[in-house]
Each structure stands twice: as C-alpha cells, then as structure tokens.
Amino acid sequence: MSRRTKWVAFGLCLLLVSALWNPVSVQATNVGTSDTSDIMAGADTDIAISNVKMDGQQAGEKVTVSFRAATDNSNRNYKVTNITKIVPVLDESFPFETDNEAYKVIHATVSSVDASYSFTARENLETGYYPVAFTITYDRQAEDGTVTAYCVTKSISVKIQAKEESASSDGDISLKVKSAPSGTYGKNCDVTFQAKAKKGKILSVTPVVTDGFPFETEKDAYRSTTSKGTTSLKCDYAFKVREDVVTGYQMVSFLVKYEKAGKTYEVTRSLNVKLTGKKSNSEGGSNGGNGNTSTPRLMVAGYDLGKDTIYANEAFTLTLHMENTAKSTISNIKISLANEESQFVPEDGVGSTFIESMAAGESQDVTFQIKPVSGLEEKSYPLVVKSEYENGKAEAFSAEDTLYVPVYLRQRLSITDVYLTQDSYEVGDMVEVSATVNNLGEGNLYNVTVYLSGDNVEESASYVGNVEPGKSGTADILAKATVVTDGAHTKNQMLITYEDKDGNVQEKSIELDLRVKEPVYDNLEKVKTSKDHSAMAKKAGIVIVIMLGMAGIGYVVFRRRKRKQKILDEFIENGSNVE
After folding, report:
1. What average pLDDT does the structure give for the chain?
2. What's the CA angle centered on 523, arms 521 and 529, to 5 degrees?
3. Please, which residues bridge with residue 86 across strands?
4. Measured between alpha carbons, how far is 298 from 285 in angstroms, rounded to an integer?
5. How far apart are CA 350 and CA 347, in angstroms?
6. How close are the terminal C-alpha atoms of the chain, in Å?
7. CB 477 within 8 A of CB 449
C-alpha cells in the first residue's frame, strides 16, 4: 500500500469523525443583532432560561451575566431540537457598552447551552433594574420530519448601582445611647454611645467637626475609635463644651466607616446632646404673649418606634421621650403629630395628647398609635412633633421636632398551578415542573428564581425575573430523574427566592410529590429519545467508523501482500521448470 493511499484513508476517517461531532462555538461578529428577517417567530415557551447568575453591579464596571438556555418539548405537536445561536439585542434599553463582548454571538447545535457575557455597564446609569434581552435561534421539527428555524427573545433583569451612589443602606449603621448626653458651657461633657452595624463590620467612628460643632476643637474632637471589624463598637468621648453654646439640644455627628460585602463605605450618623449655656436676662426668651415662639424648652429627647421595620398600612406604637429643659415648671402642655401629605394617620383618630404640667428637668413618655397609609413608596417620611405649653406667667410658647420614619412595603407571594407533566417518571427521564408565582404584596418582587431539588432529581433552576404587585410570573423547570423513590429517598421541593429593593433575599418553599421508578430498558422509544443513549450512540458510531477505516486499510495491505507472494511463488516455480 502506497504512502499516498494511507494518507487518503486516514483523512477520510478524520472527516467521518468530525461529521459526528458538533461542539458549541463562540464567534465575535460585527453584527449587534441576530439576522432573523428570514426566520419565523417561535413560541416563548419553546426555550427555557435557568441558572441565571450575576457578578458585579456597579455602573462603569464589568457585569457578568450567565444563564442556561434549554429547549422545552412539553405538550407540543412538534419537537424543539437544537439551539443554534444566541446573540444580545442591542436596542435603546441595552444598559451596557457596545464593545466586542456586546457583539459576541454564541453558535451551537445542542439542546442546552450555558452562556456567559462579561459586559461593561454604562457610566451614566441610575440605580435600578434593567432588562437585557437575548435573541435565541433554534430548530423545530414537525411531525412530518420537516425542520424549520425559529427564534424567540428572552429577557433577564440586571440590577445596576449608580456610579455616584454608595451601595450602603440607611439601615446599615445606627448609634445607640442609654440617655441623652449632657454638658454645661466651659466644662467637660462625656459622650458615650454604641455604634451598631445591622449589616457589615464597623471599622472606625470619628467626630464630624464643623462650624456648628458645640465643643472645643481639641483632643477627642479629632480622635477616631477604631476596630478590626465588629458589629458593635463602644465609643467614649470627653469633649469640652464651648463657652458660647445655647441652652437646648444640639446634634453632634459622627462619621462611621464600615465594610460590607468586601467594599468599604462611609455614613454620617448623629445624636442629640443636651447643653446648658450661659444664663440670659429672660429665661423664656424676649418674646412673650399668646402664640409667641422662643428657644424650645420642651424637647423630644428620643423616640422609639416599637418595631424594627415599619410597613405601610400596619399600625405601630410611637413613644416620644419628652423632657422639660427649662428652669421652671411648664403647664397646659399639648403635644400633637402632623405631616404635610397625611402619610401617617392616628389609629384611634386622635393625633394629640395633653399633659397638665412638667417640673423643671422632668421627663415623661408620650405614646401614639399611628399607621402609615397604603400606597406609599419605600422611603423615609417626615413626622412633625408639635409642642405647645405655658410658663408660670401664662405666656404661651411652641416648639417643633421632626422625626424621619422609614416605611417599607411588605412582600407576599403565593405559588399556584404547580403541575407535573407525568404521574411518575423513570430514572433518566427529564422531569418538567411548571408553577405560577403570584405577587400578593404591595412591593415589587425582584429577581424571582425557582429551584427544583431533592432526593430524586438533579438540582435545576428557572429564572422568572421581576413580578409587579398584583401580577404573576411563570416558571418552567427541567431536571433529570436520578434516584428511585423509596425508603429515605422521598423528599423533593420547589424553592422560590426573591429580593426586595435593597437586595435582601427571601425565600419560600413547597414540597413536591415526585415519584421515580426503575427504567424499563426494552422501551425503544425512550432509548431513542434519551439524552444519555443518544450520546452513547454517537460515541459508538465514532468507534465503529474508526474500526471500519482501520479494517479497510488492513484488508488492502493483506491483499497486496498476498498478491506479491503469489507472483513470487509463480516466478520460483517457472524458474525451476526452465532448468
């Protein structure tokens, strides 16, 4: 056999092997959207998106979006065979830079594709959720065997944090004091409090020195209290009160530096300090008479909301710690609550209370049952505390304090229409479960994802996206049956996770009655459609082709050697006859 013949045979074997092997390929093109002008629009349920993952969320930085796209063949009179192409949709809502990654096209000829894009978020994005759409092209086989190309567009919601904003939350850090610190002009004032982190670890606390700082700018005014990272940091400061302070409560601010999720943030938190200044000629101020306003003598020294979280349309108890800072008794005290747009209403219909009198330096607690109205946004709302009272000469005075109450919207969901396509499955079958996620609350459900896991199936997930109040989302999950249902292997569940506006994850789960039995191997139709059998058949085909090629080469070599031997034998025989 000549060398040329051997190389030709070897090349034919390689061509046959490559024809049976179809890897997924990734190609960067100069076309930002898929050319689907000659491709028919498919059904949205033909393709399922699952295993959605995000890495990064800052504007101007890299944001990696990963997901799995898979064909869905449940309850159809046709078969969705292979995904052939995935490409981002570069429309006006696309929140990323249109660089090489945005133009990347993923080519494939398989039923399930794990896609990943490392985009760069645009610099000017505001904080919020942005839809990222992908056009997915796939083949659909009709009952008569005809294969036609179709395409669908699937969207994924991506959270982006504005570049100029911090990812910190108003509720991350708080300052706690047992009682309001107090001091007198020209003397020392001890300010002791506990800095607490609801999320993250506190690194340092430093006084904020401004023109209105009521203490002398020396020693402790510039001292930082530090730690290696703790959720509760005790802070002790010995300040000296300035000579020119005015009697009353003043806000003292502290800069708190803390770490959360691997990043460092800084927030400013304040507390009230009771200060006594030099005596003036008139204790109540120069303005007397009915309706006059002076430097407040009745102050809100502190308050308590009674709950960690205040929800819209749910009542809570507001406790005000009132203190008479005057040097004499005040009487006929009326304390009332007010807000400009009626975001809060009194639960009992009364928004005021009356105190007969308070002696100098006396403190009393006043409580109100109030409720935020429904329909509010998730943010802090001002609540004004108005005080009206009289001194010993029946002169009227008034004061106002403003509290800021954070209001949240309660998230509630239900899962309905849970449906298994079969009563039972065999090991190796693809289990399909569908369910409807209903938003029964007042706030959005962000990044809703449904997971299927348990003793009898492989773990799988389906990304639903954002669900607005009063609306529903549908989840379709595909997972392989792996273990027979018996004995201890009987528990399977569907887990639904979702986020609030701050990215806090909550979850809800339900049990599934999923039955898996031993496979029947003489079921030819199952063997024909099984993913595992198909892979084995493909590998077996490759081996057979290689063996046939080698056998062909061996047969040719054997025939040529046999022919040479025959010619040699005839030559020897003829030669002996000549003699």
Report:
1. 79
2. 100
3. 106, 136
4. 14
5. 8
6. 34
7. no
| Residue whose C-alpha is closest to residue 144's, from 79, 74, 76 | 79
DSSP code string of 493-540: EEEEEEE-TT--EEEEEEEE---EE---TT-HHHHHH-HHHHHHHHHH
Q: Is the pLDDT of residue 88 over 90?
A: yes
Nearest-10 Cα torsion for 365, 369, 373, 376: 30
What one-character-per-residue DSSP string does 395-453 give? -EEEEEEEEEEEEE----EEEEEEEESSS-EETTPEEEEEEEEEE-SSSPEEEEEEEEE
β-pair type (62-71, 47-55): antiparallel
Pick from 14, 19, 51: which is nearest to 453 by CA?
51
Closest CA to 182 of 296, 270, 272, 294: 272
User: Left if phi > 0, otherwise alpha if psi is -120 to 50, otherwise beta: which for 284?
Assistant: alpha
- Residue 408, φ and ψ in degrees, nearest 5: -115, 160
Confidence label for 414 from pLDDT (cuts 50, 70 and 90): confident
Decide the pairing of beta strands 104-110 and 25-28: antiparallel
Q: How would you classify the pairing of strands 188-197 and 316-324?
A: unpaired
Q: H/E/C letters for each residue in 241-275?
A: ECCCCCCEEEEEEEEEEEEECCEEEEEEEEEEEEE
Rounded CA separation 382/423 (Å): 57
C-alpha 443/C-alpha 268 separation (Å) is: 28
Query: What pLDDT digit, counting tens, does each position of 425-481 carry?
Result: 888 888 888 889 999 887 888 889 999 888 888 888 888 889 888 888 888 888 888
- Per DSSP, the three-state class of 557 is helix
DSSP per residue over 201-218, as a string? EEEEEEE---TT--B-SS
Evaluate whether 23 touches 109 at the Cβ level (below 8 Å): no
**Residue entry with tokens 């639904």:** 496
506 Cβ contact list (under 8 Å, min separation 6) = 411, 497, 498, 499, 500
Distance CA 159, CA 127 (A): 8
- Shortest CA distance to 401 belongs to which of 462, 307, 325? 325
pTM: 0.40
